């Protein structure tokens, strides 16, 4: 594997699952692959899980790691092409990216949607420049439109907790005070579409995901109906795609609560975290025995390590 930007980069879903379960059981068995290799992790946005789990995964693989928080530690980086750089950004990505590539063997990048320009976001303007100019493999640690390390961990978690071969998995929109990117929802749907699970997406009208991501997945606008007989409830907020980046609703009747969970098939509750308690999900649900948000987050280390193993094997 050269880069890890979307589900399309893995050889197959089954192979990715096999690698993940192998590194989970044998976390230190492949340190020879990463010996004397370095991963640089570049953050344009905040992180808790992605930063720690990816660093830990790289260390498990025997790699050295360096972290750059662009907006705090480094020069502000210009990403527009052909601009007269007489503003507040003293360095261009066109130099910064290949220079970073000189110092490492793998680059991880986090760059969220900025909601200033839909085309820039949906063309992955930042991550695609890293892929083009880095000269080393690039791992998305969440781009503008996808969060593949999260979705891979979500898949592993569902495989670990499922009670039947073809579980019903429901992705539900939930309210939030801030405008959040569609990346987690897009990516979750993209990965789930590669499985044979029954996938249902529920959200208020106006929150339809981009056509390329939702494809022909069933959308149920009645949240309670969607929850019926579900085996997994995955909650997430996202801002509108059609009214790009806008908050159209903060309706707390979409909060995941005990009454709605009672409609399910004793479903497990999932969320990528961080989560706003009693806005996205009630304390009663996230503190229940059916909440698997912590093992889900733990699998972030596993899948980051699996990605690094697949990349290092081909260096
Ligand atoms: N789920 C996730 O990516 O968490 P962080 O934003 O804390 O990295």
Describe the protein in words:
The chain is 35% helix and 14% strand. It has helices at residues 13-25, 49-60, 93-102, 118-122, 125-133, 148-161, 183-192, 211-214, 223-227, 258-261, 283-286, 293-312, and strands at 38-43, 64-69, 77-78, 91-92, 106-110, 138-140, 168-173, 198-202, 218-219, 232-236, 268-270. The chain folds into 2 domains: 7-146 and 300-312, Aspartate/ornithine carbamoyltransferase (Rossmann fold, 3-Layer(aba) Sandwich); 149-297, Rossmann fold (3-Layer(aba) Sandwich), CATH 3.40.50.1370. It is globular. It has a 5-stranded parallel β-sheet. It has a 4-stranded parallel β-sheet with strand order 2-1-5-6, sandwiched between helices. Strands 3-4 form a two-stranded parallel ribbon. Strand 7, helix 7 (183-192) and strand 8 form a beta-alpha-beta unit. The protein has 12 helices and 11 strands. The model has no long low-confidence stretch (mean pLDDT 97). The protein has 315 residues and is α/β, with parallel strands linked by helices. The chain binds phosphoric acid mono(formamide)ester. The site of phosphoric acid mono(formamide)ester has 9 residues, from helix 2. Phosphoric acid mono(formamide)ester binds at residues 47-50, 142, 150, 272-274. N(2)-succinyl-L-ornithine binds at residues 142, 176, 236, 276. Its EC number is 2.1.3.11. This is N-succinylornithine carbamoyltransferase. It comes from Maribellus comscasis. It catalyses: N(2)-succinyl-L-ornithine + carbamoyl phosphate = N(2)-succinyl-L-citrulline + phosphate + H(+).
């Amino acid at each position: 594997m050269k880069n890890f930007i979307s589900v399309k980069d893995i050889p197959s879903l089954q192979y990715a699952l096999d690698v993940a379960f192998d590194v989970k059981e044998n976390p230190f068995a492949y340190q020879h692959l990463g010996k004397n290799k370095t991963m640089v992790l570049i953050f344009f946005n905040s992180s808790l899980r992605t930063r720690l789990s990816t660093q830990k995964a790289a260390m498990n693989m025997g790699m050295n790691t360096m972290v750059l928080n662009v907006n705090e530690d480094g020069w502000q980086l210009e990403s527009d092409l052909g601009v007269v750089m007489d503003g507040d950004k003293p360095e261009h990505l066109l130099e910064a990216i290949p220079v970073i590539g000189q110092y490492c063997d793998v680059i991880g990048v986090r760059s969220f949607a900025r909601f200033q320009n839909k085309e820039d976001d949906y063309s992955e303007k930042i991550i695609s420049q890293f892929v083009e100019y880095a000269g080393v493999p690039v791992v998305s640690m969440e781009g503008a439109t996808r969060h593949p390390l999260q979705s891979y961990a979500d898949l592993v978690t569902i495989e670990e907790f499922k009670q039947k071969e073809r579980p019903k998995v429901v992705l539900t929109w939930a309210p939030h005070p801030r405008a959040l990117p569609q990346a987690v929802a897009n990516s979750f749907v993209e990965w789930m579409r590669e499985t044979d699970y029954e996938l249902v997406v529920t959200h208020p009208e106006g929150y339809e995901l981009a056509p390329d991501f939702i494809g022909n997945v069933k959308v149920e606008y009645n949240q309670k109906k969607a929850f019926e007989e579900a085996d997994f409830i995955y909650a997430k907020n996202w801002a509108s795609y059609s009214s790009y980046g806008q908050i159209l609703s903060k309706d707390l009747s979409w909060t995941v609560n005990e009454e709605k969970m009672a409609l399910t098939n004793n479903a497990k509750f999932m969320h990528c975290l961080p989560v706003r308690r009693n806005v996205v999900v009630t304390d009663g649900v996230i503190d229940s025995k059916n909440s698997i948000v912590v093992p889900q987050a733990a699998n972030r280390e596993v899948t980051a390590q699996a990605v690094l193993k697949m990349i290092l094997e081909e260096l």
